Amino acid sequence: MSQQNQVIFNGRYELHRRLGRGGMAEVYLARDQLLDRPVAVKVLFPALATDQGFVERFRREAQAAANLQHPNIVSVFDWGEANGTYFIVMEYVEGMTLAELLRDEGRLHPDRAAEITADIAAALGFAHRNRVVHRDVKPGNVLITRDGGVKVADFGIARALSDSSDMNLTKTGSVMGTATYFSPEQARGAPVDPRSDIYSLGCVLYEMTTGHPPFAGDSAVAIAYKHVQENPMPPRRFDPALPETLEAITLKCLAKNPANRYPSAQDLRADIRRFLDGSRIMAEPVLAPPVDPGATNVLARTQYGEQTAAIAGPVGYAPQGYDDGYDDYDDYDDEDEPKRSKWFLAALILLLLVLAGLLFLLARNFSGGGDGVEQVTVPGVVGQDVNVATGALEAAGFEVKTEFANDPTAPPNQVTKQDPEAGVDADAGSTVTLTVSQGPEPVTVPDVVGMAQTEAQTVLTQAGFVVNVVPQENDDVPEDTVISQDPAANQQVPPQSTITIAVSSGSGKVAVPNVVGQTQGAAQAALSSAGFATVNVQQQSSGDVPNGTVISVDPPAGTQVPPNQAITLVVSSGQERVGVPNVEGLNEANARTQLEAAGLSVSVSQEDVSNPGQDGRVLRQSPSAGQQVDRGSTVNIVVARFSVTGGGGGGGGGGN
């Protein structure tokens, strides 16, 4: 965006550059000219701006979001209309989205994932108390600041979009793009409340700990179907090292029935804090969860029981008649919420029942009137994903029992064996047992802290691990010694896992090279090669060291110092030159004093004179006054000596 074509909204918000593009708007970095601060401006696509119903809903929700002032919520400052569309002005957060973090770094450490979840739950809890449901909790709407803080964005925007009459699962757009994190009630088109946000947050927590969301599919409709009909694979099936307590919290958030989820975001955050503190959590597996009338009647089997993946609190956690406090959320549903969804669902169920009856009658005719037990050929499902295999067997009329076992030759969740085998005729309704791979047997991580780098790499490689070496400066640990490792020693991890070892690169200090006696240029080059960027030079005269030669270095040669420390070179400027003082006319003693004070030596010779007034005075000097000579040079002075000539000289001398 050139300076000449600079766009300014409402005479105040100066757009600079585009930060990103979503399903409903583009986001720009802008400057608030009034307050002189950076802001983020979200500009709606013009196609949305023509839908007056959506615009009105967007206005109401933007105003509601502007009232949410919380440390974990991106603040909304302003909204308005410009250039034929609408925009909102938000707090500018320096950092990246959680989606970008997961894309760049992969799954997170369980504790870090829990901390992020707790902060998101704090934001949601505050919004819910202010009667705002987010409806679009996903990694792309969570911002991670440069200092690791967490902020949730786009409160209320998803509600405006999803409630618009022409934006739904049957149309491409941002709703389609976020079906991955839909709650079952959202997928069915049923009314939602804050517990829908808890389900979506559970999807985000699942992705942070496993590296992928709980459900995937070829289309948004396929994913939404799985949210309603299928239960997620427990996270520890992908990584047995994940804490069981964090898995229980995740699955409780992902309960199909909202009544089996956490009653509020505050309760979820409290359980997360208990997990981080090592205290007993509220989420525990139960064998008989309440029946969810809105979800499928037969749930996929999990490790917690024959036919349940719903996680509730301890036994008696939500007794019959328990008031979860959500009756007050009825008015989250707009008065124009579609009423036909329940009728549509009822009609769909009735149609399926009729179809099932017809299929049953047809099957009886082919089996000779049903006098005996119907025989069905068992489908072959070995090599398939357990969810796909279960669906195929149940569609063929079989019950499915799942057993998990470690298998180094098959990836996790792949069916390795079935009983009865494929092609066998078995009674309709009988049970087919599937053996499902949990991946290879986990192995114990050796303790290599304190070892030399080469020894640690050998130990880890021989144990079947991939080694990632990260140098790290350390004043206390000797160079090439392992400081720490991740995962830690004695943890159980899959074979071929990557073990990162931090290896000491020493103190990071460099020995000062000995450059005394070298020329100034050679000394500076040697210091630069040793890594010292700053070299100061001081000139000093010397009668012994040639001009341009290094006399000394500070710090002295051999001293270990950081490479960013300045090094001072003392370089000879050669013999010092001094000016010869003018001593002609002075007596010998004064002349000698001045010359020696100037650093010069004195040589005296005498010359007879006939003028007694000149006796003892300097007649001449060499070198002459004002000449520049080396310090220590000799100056010759000629001193007058009065001499009496002729007779009577001896007596005259005695008289004077």
Question: How would you describe what is shown here?
Answer:
- It is a single chain.
- The chain has 656 residues and is of the alpha+beta class.
- The chain has 6 domains: 8-91, Phosphorylase Kinase, domain 1 (2-Layer Sandwich); 96-318, Transferase(Phosphotransferase) domain 1 (Transferase(Phosphotransferase), domain 1, Orthogonal Bundle), CATH 1.10.510.10; 375-439, Trypsin Inhibitor V, Chain A (2-Layer Sandwich); 443-504, 2-Layer Sandwich (Trypsin Inhibitor V, Chain A); 510-572, Trypsin Inhibitor V, Chain A; 578-655, Trypsin Inhibitor V, Chain A (2-Layer Sandwich).
- The strands form 11 sheets. The protein has a 6-stranded antiparallel sheet with strand order 1-2-3-4-6-5.
- Strand 1 (8-9) and strand 2 form a beta hairpin.
- The longest helix is centred in the middle third of the chain and has 27 residues, at 340-366.
- The protein is elongated, with a radius of gyration of 44 Å.
- The relative contact order is 0.05.
- The model is unreliable at 160-177, 286-340, 366-371 and 646-656 (pLDDT under 50).
